[in-house]
Amino acid sequence: MSPIFLIQAINVLYGVTTLAVLVLGLAVIFGLLGVLNIAHGEFVMVGAYCAWAVTADGLPFLLAVPLALVVCGLLGLVVERVLIRPLYHRPFDTLVATWGLSLLLRKTAEAIFGLGFRSVRLPLAGTWHFLGVDYPSYRLVLIAVSILVLAALFLWYGSSRTGMRIRAMVGNADLAQAQGIAVKRLAAGTFIAGTILAGLGGVMVAPLVPVQPFMGLDYVLRAFFVLVVGGLGSVLGVLAGAGAIGGLDSVVSALIDGTYGYFTVLVVAILFLWLRPRGIFAHN
Amino acid sequence: MRTTSLGILAILLLPLVVGDYWIYQFGLYFLYAAAAVGIGACWGRAGFLPLGQAMFFGIAAYLSGLALIACDGSATALIFLPLAAAASGLLAYLIAALVFRGIGESGAYFSMITLALSLLTFQIANNWSTVTGGFNGLKGIPGLPGIESYTASYYVAAVALILVLGLCGWLYDAPIGILWRALAENERRVALFGFDTNRLKAIAFGVSGLVAGIGGVLYAPQQGLVSPQLTGFILSANLVIWVAVGGRGTLLGPVLGTLIVGALTTQLRDTIPFWEVLMAAFFIFVVLAMPDGLAGAIARAATRLTASSHLARKLMGGGAARPKIMAPARTLEAGGAQLEIRDVSAGIGEVAILDRLSFAIRQSGISCIIGPNGAGKTSTFNLLTGELAARRGQVVLDGVMVSGMAPHRIVRRGVGRKFQIPSVFPDLAIADNLGIALWSGRASWLDLLRPRLRRWTSPMLEELCERYPFLAEADRRAAELSHGERQILELAMALLTEPRVLLLDEPCAGLSPEETQGVIDVIRWAAPRLGSAIVVIEHDMSLVKALAATVYVLHNGTLLAEGSVAEIQADPAVRAVYVGSEK
Q1: Parallel, antiparallel, or unpaired: how do β-strands A133-136 and A127-130 relate?
Q2: Structure confidence by residue, pLDDT tens digits, B500-533
Q3: Handedness of CA B19, B22, B24, B30 (dihedral sign)
Q4: A56 is in which domain, residue-wise?
Q5: Domain assignment of residue A70, yes or no
Q6: I want to staple B393 with a disulfide (CB 3.0 to 4.6 A). Which of B117, B343, B388, B414 is the partner?
Q7: Interface contact A107, partner B, CB < 8 A
């Protein structure tokens, strides 16, 4: 295998796996609770600022993980209680409310950190020699972590008791409650899990992208398109959607330029809404 | 009328009172307000939220700027400016027609796509330097010929805004505005009155694109500069905030929000730290606790103060009672339809609902469908109105195969329906509920733009009003009606469409014995007048006896028996099903 081709292949693998992790939080909340959290991207942003805050203070990068966990978890807790819980089963109102939340988080970040770009120093500099090519070490670690996270979530959801309760809640919330499942607490937990996943995604990508208040917009749209293509309700769908959207975007952007990449993704997403509104794996 | 003239007078006299700074600010915010009114049309009326509205403002501004530069400020440019606004409207219409065609629903998907499109437009404007001037924008745009002072430019913006308000106010007053509100409440029901709801929504979005375009077209000569930011996210986001705070459901709310929040923002952004954070928090508060915004709050306060609801009705957009106009007859062949279900199987997912069902209704008059729970009675209605797809077999109405057609097309061929749970439009006045039924199948697309259709009546409606006087209480909201009255209202709506096939799903469900007798009387009264085939789903055998000559018995999604009440009661197969499975 030629080295250039191998590097491209790893690039695609990197793009797809990290995108999949960034989508997870949105997929969990939208797929399981039926709430499209437009503020998803802002939770990614909050995670990225956590990474910045930790490294700017000269602390080790890994401390950003517990910090993002706590910050995004608490935010998720409050948001679920105040904003989401009164609006379950009113998808349109949750859409508007989370959109307001995204404005609030973005403006708050703007007020605290300013509009400028912040950069987070790579915690793992240098490259690793790998199958005859040199590849940035941090990205290789990210690929591994992403695959681990996806696999762990897949296994946990399919086999743990909590996973089963969540599936019961999604299937029939009233019946689940009648069976003694604390549906409200479970839904809150699911929402918080989604915001924490978004925050951790933000920590992961922080060293590789400019950290700024508006960074979330791009992530939420990309994540949404991934769900449109992949459909809701399966890790496999998230992977397929991430593969399609991430792959398409990087190929078209590489061949022509970024605007066309974005345009192609948009057109494909609209086509999917027409032809397969429930995603690539839907039967109908 | 008086409030309108006062408002216009205030706008005209403002330059005499305030200085150039405010004249300039208001001139600018009037243009943004035009775009905000369009968002109000989509969000407050038709019930879907566009998140990327700046794109239409910006695109029109670019087109207008290019035209003005190309004509070098001469009057020739004036020909192109309306075209630029129209182009924005057309683009919006096409986008909505494409997206809604695929998904139908009005929720998150459409909003997200408009957001993405707005970001895409920003990228194009930013990168296509040869045409748009790139990041720095299109500079040195000449002003409109003859418009040189701030005051002149203010008046241009004011006239544009009044024009936009006039257009939208007229549309809100016309049947199409009522249909927008109706489909925000219950889209499926609007489709089952024979209206193409996706096109109605696309028109709403087209109008919003047009009025944003009108604002954008005038922005270019007013400011002399069009930059990519104008198409992008921040303006889109601000517009939605302004509309929410001002009051999305009213005509003037968006204008109020734009002027107040916009003006406050320019004043306070630099003096109050976290001003924009406060605005975002306020937005969330409004969404949760004050859905009709400042305009709604003002209207309520005014009602309380003056005890006259005139201003309130003005702000909230209420109807009025004027002389009635007789609606034209429906252009359908009179008489009963030939309806045939041929060997149809249908289901949802793995669940089979109808199993090779066949029966035909060939004569006018009343027939009943009975059967145990889960027999497929309501599903048969869903099949007939195109909401349940047939996996095999056909539905043929008057020799035309209707299975596979969209519900609104089938309904237009003369199928009417009443649901078991009364589905009227609770936030609409009784008169508008009845109006929707009258417009169904009688009004053309052009008719839907004419406010005088709100005054339509028909001989059948007049007689129904005599039987049920509450139907004539035009301004009362349907939400205030009792369950029994809602059943009557929906029955009246179904009758008023004067269909060739009328499907009534348990019209007496939840009614008292007297009300039930009333409904039976109305159905028997209407049957010969309509001359149509009326099919009633009913559980109560005494009502079936009172109503129907012919009875169809459904069981497990297929036809078990057919005949007169006596024949059915004697049928051993029917007896076996009922004795074995139902009370």
Answers
A1: antiparallel
A2: 889 998 888 888 888 888 888 888 888 888 888 8
A3: negative
A4: 3-214
A5: yes
A6: B343
A7: yes
Q: For residue B72, with 0-12 CB atoms within 10 Å meaning exposed, 13-18 middle and 19 or more buried, which class applies?
A: exposed
Is A114 within 8 Å of chain B by CB? no
- The CA dihedral of B272, B273, B276, B277, to the nearest 10 degrees, is -130
pLDDT band at A198 (very low <50, low <70, confident <90, very high): very high
Mutate to test the interface with B, among A103, A220, A232 (most CBs of B within 10 A): A103
Is residue A261 one of the residues assigned to a domain?
no
- Spell B478-512 as b/e; 16+ CB within 10 A means b: beebeebbbbbbbbbbbbbbbbbbbbbbbbbbebe
- Architecture, CATH, for domain B339-581: 3-Layer(aba) Sandwich (3.40)
Chain A residue nearest residue B124, CA to CA: A259
Q: How far apart are CA B465 and CA B430, in angstroms?
A: 11
Condensed to tens digits (0 to 9), the pLDDT of residues A109-138 reads 988 888 888 888 888 878 888 777 888 888
Task: In whole angstroms, give the CA distance from residue A175 to residue A97.
Answer: 28
Contact A263 B120 (CB under 8 A): yes
Taking the C-alpha atoms of residue A166 and residue A164, their distance in angstroms, rounded to an integer, is: 5
DSSP tag of B477? B
- The domains of chain B are located at 2-228, 339-581
Q: Which residue is closest to B245 within chain A, CA to CA?
A: A100
Summary mean pLDDT of chain A: 84
Residues 550-569 on B with a CB inside 8 Å of A are none
Above pLDDT 90, what percent of chain A? Answer: 17
Kindly list the distances between the CA atom of residue B239 and the CA atoms of A36, A102, B49, B225, in Å, as whole numbers in the listed order: 21, 15, 11, 20
**What is each CA distance from B249 to A21, A122, B33, B203, B429, in whole angstroms?**
39, 50, 15, 17, 15
Residues of B in contact with A98 (CB under 8 A): none
The pLDDT tens digits for B210-264 are 999 999 999 988 888 888 888 888 889 889 988 988 888 888 889 999 998 888 8
Mean pLDDT throughout B85-96? 93
pLDDT score, position B335: 62
Q: Which two tokens mark B246?
A: 């001002």
Give Cα separations from B251 to B159, B181, B293 (angstroms). 16, 13, 12
B279 touches chain A (CB under 8 A): yes
Interface contact B49-A95, CB threshold 8 A: yes
Kindly report the three-state secondary structure assignment for every residue of chain A.
CCHHHHHHHHHHHHHHHHHHHHHHHHHHHHHHHCCCCCCHHHHHHHHHHHHHHHHHCCCCHHHHHHHHHHHHHHHHHHHHHHHHHHHCCCHHHHHHHHHHHHHHHHHHHHHHHCCCCECCCCCCCCEEEECCEEEEHHHHHHHHHHHHHHHHHHHHHHHCHHHHHHHHHHHCHHHHHHCCCCHHHHHHHHHHHHHHHHHHHHHHHHHHCCECCCHHHHHHHHHHHHHHHHCCCCHHHHHHHHHHHHHHHHHHHHHCCHHHHHHHHHHHHHHHHHHCCCCCCCCC
For chain B, say whether A219 makes contact (Cβ under 8 Å): no
B266 in Cβ contact with B176 (< 8 Å): no
Closest in B111, B116, B284 to A266, CB measured: B116
Are the beta carbons of A266 and B276 separated by less than 8 Å? no
Q: Which residue of A has its CA nearest to B349?
A: A284
- Whether B123 and A258 lie within 8 Å, measured CB to CB: yes
Please state the rounded mean pLDDT for residues A41-51. Answer: 93
* Closest residue in A to B279 (Cα–Cα): A104
Cβ separation A100–B284 shorter than 8 A: yes
Q: What is the arithmetic mean of pLDDT over B393-419?
A: 86
Global pTM? Answer: 0.87
Q: Is residue A227 part of a domain?
A: no
